[in-house]
Amino acid sequence: MDSIYLVAYTTILIFTILIPSFLLGRIWFAVSPFVINYYRSEKASWYNSWNTDRFLIVVSGVAISVLLSFFWGVKILRQIREVEPDFVEVFFYIVIQIIILVLLEAKMDHPGKPLKAFREFQRKRYDERFVFLEKQNAADTVTHHAAELKKEIQHTKESLAGEIQIHKDISTEIHLLADENNRLLKTSDFPFELRNTTNLNISNLMTEYFISEESRQPLEDFLLRKRKNGKIVFTKIARNGVSIQPILDFFSRYTDLIENCKAEKYSQAETAEIINETASALTRKGELENQPINSKNLSKYLS
Q1: How far is CA 283 from each of CA 170, 233, 244, 279, 289, rounded to the nearest angstrom?
Q2: Alpha-carbon distance 70 to 58, whole Å?
Q3: 3-state SS, residue 200
Q4: Which residue has the higher pLDDT, 6 or 1?
Q5: d(Cα 294, Cα 297) in Å, to the nearest integer?
Q6: Are the CB atoms for 37 and 47 separated by under 8 Å?
Q7: Which residue spans traverse the membrane (predicted)?
Q8: Cβ-count burial of 202 within 10 angstroms (0-12 exposed, 13-18 middle, 19+ buried)?
Q9: Strands across the sheet with 288-289, in order?
Q10: Contact residues for 156 (Cβ-Cβ < 8 A; gap 6+)
Q11: Are 226 and 187 in contact (CB under 8 A)?
Q12: What is the pLDDT of residues 137-175, one digit of tens each?
């Protein structure tokens, strides 16, 4: 037999004999306390964290492993002896046995540490190793529940601490955002103050002052954020030139610019230039006038 077949044969022999034998040994150490207690007390009672569902899962896994070894493993061994192995079949057989081993080992006491479980099995007395449900007196029950309650309280404290920290971080972030928002609100792109901008209905305001729908965003940025984001287009048409009435009425009501002009803080030319940076108007021909306000029509409005 070639060396590669010898290695394959040895490997399959290990997975066919040793793994099922190991699992049978593990299940024996898991089930024997139940059997012994059942014989002594004539009452079925599981110990520690074992229960019927866990037992059925473990027994089913061991049975699958043994059956695979008896039928599939023996078949593969026969094929290797005859120098006709299917290495894909060999691979899947090994993988399935390993998966069963890992899954069942996770269900055992001291998972992944069979030697530790065996030593503890030998070192402790029978009554110390296994606490059966029907033998737990009132004191044991109180102790057990106290320990469980302590664990639950500790877990709750840790969860609450995490939640408190999260809320604290969120509150800090909100505070920083609020400070930044207040800073931005106090910062203006315009050399004048806005007023009467609380509880505004933008749609009603646009209708009242003949402002185009396309100017909604620039209007909102102007009144609510003190930002310059394009021009506000006034659409009321005059017989000659542009209609300045809604433009100047708008700036008179929602800013202190006209008031400052009257108080001579700004000249009429400066006031007109400031308004023209923000406002445009449509002419009678439907053309856009980017400089609708000048010293002449502003002076007429102020008089």
Answers
A1: 52, 11, 11, 13, 7
A2: 18
A3: coil
A4: 6
A5: 6
A6: yes
A7: 12-35, 55-74, 86-104
A8: middle
A9: 232-234, 279-282, 288-289
A10: none
A11: yes
A12: 444 555 666 777 887 888 788 878 878 888 887 877 777
Out of 154-158, 233-237, 271-275, pick the least confident: 154-158
Q: 């940025």: which residue's tokens?
A: 221
| Per-residue pLDDT tens digits for 173-207 | 777 766 655 555 455 677 788 887 778 888 999 99
The single residue listed with the structure tokens 């207040």 is 182
The DSSP secondary-structure symbol of 290 reads S
Q: In whole angstroms, what is the distance from residue 60 CA to residue 52 CA?
A: 12
Helix, strand, coil share of the chain (percent; to 5): 70, 5, 25
Residue 77: closest CA among 58, 93, 61: 93
What average pLDDT score do residues 11-35 get?
Answer: 81
Q: Tell me the two tokens of residue 86.
A: 């299917």
In this structure, what token pair is assigned to residue 255? 């800013």
For Cα atoms 40, 45, 46, give the angle at the middle one, nearest 5 degrees: 120
**Cα–Cα distance for residue pair 190/226, rounded to 1 Å:** 7
